[in-house]
Amino acid sequence: MLLSLDFLAIPLLIAAGLVFVSLLAGLFSVRLGFSFLVVFLIAGMLLGEDGPGGVAFKDFELAFWVGNVALAVILLDGGLRTQYRNFRTGLKPALWLATLGVVVTAALTGVAAHFLLGLSWPMALLLGAIVGSTDAAAVFALLKSSGVKLNERVAATLEIESGLNDPMAVYLTLALIGWVLLDAQNAGADMAWWWPLRDLALQFGWGAALGIGAGWAFALLLRRLTVWARPSGGVRALLLTSAGLSVFALTTWVGGSGFLAVYLFGVLVANRATQCVAPSLSAMDGFAWLAQASMFLLLGLLVTPSDALAALLPALGVVAVLMLLARPLSVWIILKPLRFDKREIAFISWVGLRGAVPIVLAIFPVMAGVEGAEIFISVALIVVMASLVLQGSTIPWSARRTGVVLPNHDDVALARQVYGDFEVPGNARMSDLCGFYGWPPVPDDHLDAAQWLTQALGRPPIEGDHANLGAAELSVRRMEDGEIVRVGIRLLRDPAAPDVEADPSD
Fold first, then answer.
1. Average of per-residue pLDDT across 264-291
2. Could you identify which of 65, 74, 124, 470 might form a hypothetical disulfide with 119, taking C-beta atoms 3.0 to 4.6 angstroms apart as the criterion?
3. In this model, does residue 503 exceed pLDDT 60?
4. At what angle are helices 356-367 and 60-80 packed, to 10 degrees?
5. How confident is the model at residue 302 (pLDDT cuts 50, 70, 90)?
């Protein structure tokens, strides 16, 4: 009797075929303006018990394991593509959005969940924490595939925020699960007030220390291996992935934030061993795609759409509060004092993408044995689908609408629209420009155009920044090594000047 290998062939055929078809459908969906992540999620649901596949999958532990590993790979890939120069403009706002912003968003969303879903305050705030953070997988993937070039401040803020806010969301979720369980046992008084602060310090302290330390050490090792062994790009990618997952697991084991650690590990390695990492980025991109595909397919298989339909209307109310009130208000509170303009605030508010993280976090209370925790998975599914369809598919449109898009080198029309019709060197004296164009004089005659623009902005300048002087708009047209080297000029109509009709003979 021959040994049958059906137990290997059939599941492998189904899994590989599903990934292949989903990838093809995802590539077509991008051309139509929809997120390919939606396709993976829907494919998993079609294979599940409510779809034609009819597979009843309720292995929360496996889904939790795969989701966390996939997120670690995605964050590692994102860290490897984050340059130190992005921290100049993006670190401070991203750090505040990833901490205080998540808390404000979670609190406001929790209030909506309390009144719309009828949940107790501990349960409602737990739901707010589950859906309160943006998703690294969605942000990295959709910004990359959107086809638009965002200005540095907006792109860096969104990417760094998505890499840093998972630790806060995980911490809030675990802390609120503890509150829910203690509340159910009427043992809330047994928890000391300083425990959550201690846990927060441990999470971020261990995550930062191990991520930075391991990144520094591995960058040194990788530079020496490149000289001694000359590994191929694929081998380097495997080294990076295995090392990053080891850092993630070790940090999680000692009580720190593995997500923070693996992201910082990627940032340190990429910037301290740039030439050594570069050949591995194409392979890392493939690993990140595989991680996203596996995670969304498995999470789609886990969720039950029929259960979500029962809570559809109140859950859509929670979605509306999250998208239109909680996220915009938290972004405005944080970014307005940092002198972001209203267009940048509007775009960052809208592109608060939710992806796999809320569904992964929704598994936490189910595994912890919280009574009624299935509602979290249903609401998280609705939030994710709404975010990917409404926000993910409108990134190019909203970027152009809010004016945060920078032109490509060959796009002359958009360059004139963004920078104006004229340009001068950054070291052109402002006194000369004011005299030539008739602008109001500047206080210091020794200022050049670059210096005046930097002072007028009151923040680190980026390409596309602009400031008005009289009847003119000066913009940062090109920068090199953090310095403004070319300044664009747009002449505006002087409100005091009489209207002049165009001569028909011209």
1. 91
2. 124
3. no
4. 140
5. confident
Are 377 and 303 in contact by the 8 Å Cβ rule? The answer is yes
- Nearest Cα to Cα of residue 171 among 102, 75, 265, 271: 102
Task: HSE, CB side, 13 Å, CA atoms: give it for residue 458.
Answer: 7
- Tell me, what amino acid is at 194? W
Integer Cα distance of 240 and 234 in angstroms: 10
Could you write out the DSSP letters of every residue in 261-319? HHHHHHHHHHHHSHHHHGGGHHHHHHHHHHHHHHHHHHHHHHS-HHHHHHTHHHHHHHH
Can you give the pLDDT at residue 502?
A: 36
Distance CA(96)–CA(8), nearest Å, equals 48
Q: What is the dihedral of CA 296, 301, 304, 309, to 10 degrees?
A: 40
Residues 6+ apart with CB under 8 A from 67: 295, 298, 299, 356, 359, 360, 363
Around Cβ 312, how many Cβ atoms within 10 Å?
A: 13
Which residue from 429, 425, 457, 450 is spatially nearest to 441, judged by alpha carbons?
Answer: 429
CA geometry: angle 119, 123, 127, nearest 5 deg? 100
Q: How far apart are alpha carbons 223 and 220 in whole angstroms?
A: 5
Provide the residue type at 16 as one letter: A
Counting residues of the chain whose pLDDT is more than 90, the rounded percentage is: 43
389, 34 Cβ separation under 8 angstroms: yes
Owner of token pair 């075929």: 17
Q: How far apart are CA 414 and CA 501, in angstroms?
A: 27
Select from 8, 353, 368, 456 the least CA-distant residue to 181. 368
DSSP summary character for residue 90: H
The domains found in the chain, sorted by start residue, are 56-402 (1.20.1530.20), 412-491 (3.30.465.10)
- pLDDT tens by residue, 427-442: 999 999 999 988 999 8
Q: What are 205-253's pLDDT values in tens digits?
A: 999 999 999 999 999 999 999 888 888 888 999 999 999 999 999 999 9
* 55 — pLDDT class (breaks 50, 70, 90): confident
Q: What is the pTM of this model?
A: 0.85
Contacts of 331 (CB under 8 A, 6+ apart): 97, 101, 345, 348, 349, 352
* 3-class DSSP assignment, residue 473: strand
Q: Name residue 430's amino acid.
A: M
| 393-402 per-residue burial string, b: 16 or more CB within 10 A, e: under 16 | bebeebbeeb
Parallel, antiparallel, or unpaired: how do β-strands 472-480 and 483-491 relate?
Answer: antiparallel
SS3 373: coil
